[in-house]
Every structure is written in C-alpha cells, then in structure tokens.
Amino acid sequence: MKLYSTNTPGVTVDFKEAVFNSMPQDKGLYMPVGIPVLDRDFIENIEMYSLSEIAFKVADSILQGAIPKNELKAIIEDAINFPAPVIKLDDRTYVLELFHGPSLAFKDFGARFMSRVMSYFMTEGEKTLNVLVATSGDTGGAVALGFLGVPNTQVTILYPKGKVSAIQELQLTTNGQNIRAVEVNGTFDDCQALVKQAFTDKELNEKFRLTSANSINIARLIPQTFYYFNAYAQLKRAGKTEVVFSVPSGNFGNIGAGLLAWKMGLPVKQFIAATNVNDTVPAFFRSGLYEPKPSVATLSNAMDVGNPSNWVRIMNLFNNDLDELRKIVSTGSYTDIQTGEAVQTIFDEYDYVVCPHTAIAWAAINDYRKSSGDDNSTAVFLSTAHPCKFPDVYEGEMAGKITIPEQVKTLLGKPKQSVELGVDFAGFKEYLMGSEL
Ligand SMILES: *Cc1c(COP(=O)(O)O)cnc(C)c1O
C-alpha cells in the first residue's frame, strides 16, 4: 500500500511509515494512492458475511499486502471483538449502534485497530513509542483502553479541563500503567494545537519516538469503513438497499470513512454530515467559503471542533470540488436546545435513549427528508456513544432507562491521576522533555 500527503501528492510512503508518522512533515494528511473498488460479487452478496469477514475483506483490499493476510485476520479478530448492530426504530429509520466496545464509543474501532497495527509493526529492541493524543472526550478513552498494557508504548492524553464528562474523565485518568493524562486549561482545539506542534518540534522528535493516535492517523480511518459495509449488510438482510447515512460529525473522520467506503463501492444514496453549532462545514456548503473558527462548547462535546482535521481528506477524495461533494453529502447543524428536543422526541417516539451526538444525526435525517423530498430511503443514523457517558443530559424517566454497562462499573471509585498544564507550548514541551520514558 502506498500513501501520499495531501500537500505533496507526488511523494509516497508505505503503510508502516504513515502509521507511525501519522502526519507527513509537510502537515498534510496521508491518503491511499488509488482507492480499490471491491468486487461486485462481494458487494452483491454482502449479506452473507459477518462483521469480521467484511472487515477483513475491506482491510485487505485497502492494505494491499502491507500486513500479511493471517496477521491481518488476527488483528481484526482481536480489535473488533464487539458487535455493531443496526436497530430498527421504524420502517425507514434505523440506528447503527457503535458503542459496544470497551470505551462505549465508536472510536474503539479506530483505536483498537491502530494500537494492534502499531504493535504488529514494532520489532524487538525498538525505542518506546510515544503516542500523543488530544481528546475532546471520547478519543482519549478509546485510545487509553486500546493501548493499555501494550508493551513498548507510552500514551499521553491531553484533554480540556472541565469539558469532559465524569465517565470520560474516569476512562482517561484511572488507567495508570503506560497511560497518563494531561488536563489542559483550555479547549479541545488548544489540546490539538499542542499535539500538532509537538510533532513538528525538532528536540522532542530527537528525544522521543512520537506518534499520533488522533483521527488523522490513517490506521484509525480504515477500520471505520468496516461498520458502514456491515450496516449495509444488515439492512440488505432486512430488504433495504436504498440507504442514507447520517453521521454526527466533529473532526469528520467518521463520515470521511463512510465516504471512503462509498468510493470503494458501497452503495449509499446520501450521507448527511450533522454538526452542532460548530458548523464550519455546513457553513461551507452554504457559502462556498471554508472558514475555520474557534470551537464553542456544546452538549455534544466530542463534536466541539472549529477546524475539523479530516476535512482536507474529504476535499481530497473529491478533488476539491464542492459541487461533486454536494451530490453525495448534505449537511445540517443544531443548537443545544434542538439537541435536547431531539433526545426527548426519540425517547417519546421510540422509547430509546440516545447520546446528544447521536440525537443530532437523527435530527438531521428529518431535515434531510423535508428538504430533499426523499421520503422512501432507509435512513440510518450512527450512534457514536452510549448515553451513560453524558449523564447531565438526562432527567427523570429517561435517566432511569439508561443502564450502566460493565465497562464503566469497574472504573468507579478508582483514583484520578492527571497533571494540569496551560495552553502554551513551552510548558507542554518542558513537561514532555522532563519525563523519562
Ligand atoms: C468523536 C465523536 C464524534 C465525532 O466524530 P468525528 O469522526 O470526529 O467526526 C461524534 N460523536 C462522538 C460520541 C464522538 O466521540
């Protein structure tokens, strides 16, 4: 497999290098050279395959031998060891539950696959791998739990102080072992900026073997394509083949993976990119002007992103042609009030509790149906996290309906371990340089 940087398309690297470097020196993003299209026979009979069979087929096509088949199969079996069911709410509305992994969020797909791929590529006696990751909440938990105990790795997680939920904070700060948490007095964008700057800092790169676990890593993007194919397989079994996916979006990795799946031949009628008021992308669709802005705190905090880091990849997939993109993607953005109303309506109509991110994707389906006149397609909204991660959102009957999964029960009562830092790079660098890893 060869990958190029979106900033320098002429220069290519192999998969291993893209996985460990995460971001090219020119600050572009890695993209696969030539996206494979899966054979028609496979797509037409996809309902006959299991999630892990589908995952293997898709990964093997993209990786093109970068990991031998048997090893790839083992990585997939180990990483994707939880289901991704599509649940029917009504005849034309389904929800794809992506929260059955250890951190209760869809990011488990990416983080678990990536950690195992990195581990596979590391040879004995190599320098410890230092994973730096900025999180607005869910990435950190998935990465921490994905790397916990993986030999020869040290993970540093940066999260915005006071801006993650209690359960998220437990997932970030109670692990010990090879995982440590840094509480940053700032926003997620500040955390992300610190990590990005660390990757371009000469001294840090000389001392440490730095790598990113953020959604910019190509090894996180690839496994996120699996569940789109697998959702389609489930729907096909139910006799549904005209499918619209609505994706709650922040850094646009999730929907980016969906679009990659589509490019690989997955039949999708439309994607909906649903955001909270951090609407850089919906505004771009309206005005044609791409104007990143500082993020605003919302109920759906994992989507509080003012400058989505995967957007470049999506533009790249569409040769920077907004009109082409508009044919397959529509957008919608929602306030906290609308989010709360959607959570309530879904509960009232379906007796089903969703997290605030998920609610936004559902709300966007309604608007899509109205504005497009497409009433018949089967609309699937991606449920990106378990509602118990956001307890402040629910009251009364709804709160009572949320069950706490085993993964969370084991964290309660464990002591918090974290270091508090400001937003200036010098302080962060000093902290990293001072640590013996
Ligand atoms: C990360 C996250 C999102 C946003 O996903 P992107 O790939 O960054 O667009 C949405 N919902 C939840 C619960 C998340 O954790």
Please give a quick description of this structure.
The protein has a domain of 204 residues: Rossmann fold (3-Layer(aba) Sandwich). Helices cover 44% and strands 17% of the residues. The protein contains 20 helices and 14 strands.
Describe the model.
This protein is of the alpha/beta class and 437 residues long. The protein has a domain of 204 residues: Rossmann fold (3-Layer(aba) Sandwich). It contains 20 helices and 14 strands. The strands form 3 sheets. Strands 4-5-13-10-11-12 form a 6-stranded mixed sheet, sandwiched between helices. Strand 1 and strand 2 form a beta hairpin. The longest helix has 17 residues. It is globular and about 60 Å long.
CATH fold annotation of the domain at 83-104 and 219-400: Rossmann fold
Query: What ranges have pLDDT less than 50 throughout 5 or more consecutive residues?
Result: none
Coarse structural class: alpha/beta
- The radius of gyration computed from the alpha-carbon positions, rounded to a whole number of angstroms, is 20 Å
- Main sheet characteristics: 6 strands, mixed
What is the mean pLDDT?
94
Helical element count?
Answer: 20
CA-CA gap between termini: 32 Å
- Which range best describes the helical content: under 10%, 10-25%, 25-40%, 40-55%, 55-70% or over 70%? 40-55%
- β-strand percent reads 15-25%
Which strand order spans the largest sheet, edge to edge or round the barrel? 4-5-13-10-11-12
Shape: globular
Hetero groups bound?
pyridoxal-5'-phosphate
- Number of extended strands: 14
CATH class of the domain at 83-104 and 219-400: Alpha Beta
- Oligomer state of the chains in this structure: single chain
Level-2 CATH architecture of the domain at 83-104 and 219-400: 3-Layer(aba) Sandwich
InterPro entries: Ser/Thr_deHydtase_PyrdxlP-BS, Thr_synth_N, Thr_synth_N_sf, Thr_synthase-like, Threonine_Synthase, TrpB-like_PALP, TrpB-like_PALP_sf
Cofactor: pyridoxal 5'-phosphate
EC number: 4.2.3.1
Family: Belongs to the threonine synthase family.
